[in-house]
Amino acid sequence: MTDYFPGFGNHVSTEAVPGALPVGRNSPQRPAYGLYAEQLSGSAFTAPRHENKRSWLYRLRPTAEHPPFVRYQGAKNFAPGTVREPLAPNRLRWDPLPAPTAPTDLIDGMTTMLANRDPADLEGVAVHVYAANKDMTDRVFVDADGELLFIPQAGRLALLTELGRIDIAPGQIALVPRGVKFRALLPDGSATGYVAENHGALFRLPDLGPIGANGLANPRDFETPAAWFEDRDDATEIVQKSLGSLWTTTLDHSPLDVVAWHGNLAPWRYDLARFNTINSVSFDHPDPSIFTVLTSPSDVPGRANADFVIFPPRWMVAEDTFRPPWFHRNVMSEAMGLIHGAYDAKAEGFAPGGLSLHNLMAGHGPDLASWEAASNVELKPHKIAGTMAFMVETCWPYRPTAYALERAQPDYDAAWKGFPKAKLP
Ligand SMILES: O=C(O)Cc1cc(O)ccc1O
Ligand SMILES: [Fe+2]
């Protein structure tokens, strides 16, 4: 049996039980085996064809059959809303979160650090970090507010979704579409990582322009799981994020009961090692857009609601060039994380599992030590190896949560202290 189908955004047909998938129609009068047909939309019905995303699910019971939701009382750090007081235009950075001491699954292990807009705007992005040490066994999570991009930092994740099972390890990413239920297992017993929650236009591959038909993240390297389901008539809690807050209800069965599905709205995984990195072979450090894996466009052409950008291993060969990221002020806002290794613009203080925020117009770039080293190094071909940093860049300035603001490193500004003054002739 196929475990995964290759390709980005393909139309997939898959059934875990032979004969479960209707042939030639979506909603037969009586689907096979008494299954329930259900359409899940990722775009408006009338979206242009190339942006139209939906899947048809054939399940043991309809999603519609559920008791009312009430407020979920756990996961106090997950989606608490951001600080509304005036936000100082300071650069912010965080150490990795402490490991949980009590048994904590992925839902309760989520901490929202940064967010912008309101999920109800259908625009914006939130950056969460997670630290968990317990499988989700008798409950599932579903996000009505957006798609979830998982970026593991330590420990594997098994995402058992309505549309199939996805296994990822650090260095791989996975996307769970808006509205798709899942539970997460931790094959290594614990896991930490990042989640970018995209409230806006669906993540897609960026246009390649003059790069041509191939390069960056190639469509064939994305993998969508085959249908998989569990037939469990045990109490199963659903925790749902909706309009910015968490809600709960309990079913008498697992909703991961989709026996067959077809369509082009589905979870996927991608190995960042497959990214075809393109860099300067002459001079100057290119704009980081050259490292875009996925983009969620806004309504303004070229101005992303969210870009997922990576800083992967690569050769640096540029001549007469300051090779690390330059000093800059950006009208876009930059949240950065580090999966492993060291980031070439920060000699100290940016640890794997950590996070930084350089909001719009914040002056930033290499710290003093990185600047000194790169200004004086002999410019031989040099391989940046053993590292993977990433950025969630957005046109909407981020606001931190109170939890994040209280825990920001107190001395981040010192990273840019002590630059010698230029000497004019
Ligand atoms: O600020 C950062 O470290 C991210 C970044 C990297 C880069 O190579 C160029 C610009 C940029 O914002
Ligand atoms: Fe930057």
Automatic annotation (TrEMBL):
Fe cation binds at residue 382. Pathway: Amino-acid degradation; L-phenylalanine degradation; acetoacetate and fumarate from L-phenylalanine: step 4/6. Its cofactor is Fe cation. It is an enzyme of class 1 (oxidoreductase). Belongs to the homogentisate dioxygenase family. Hexamer; dimer of trimers. This is Homogentisate 1,2-dioxygenase. It comes from Sphingomonas agrestis. The gene is hmgA.
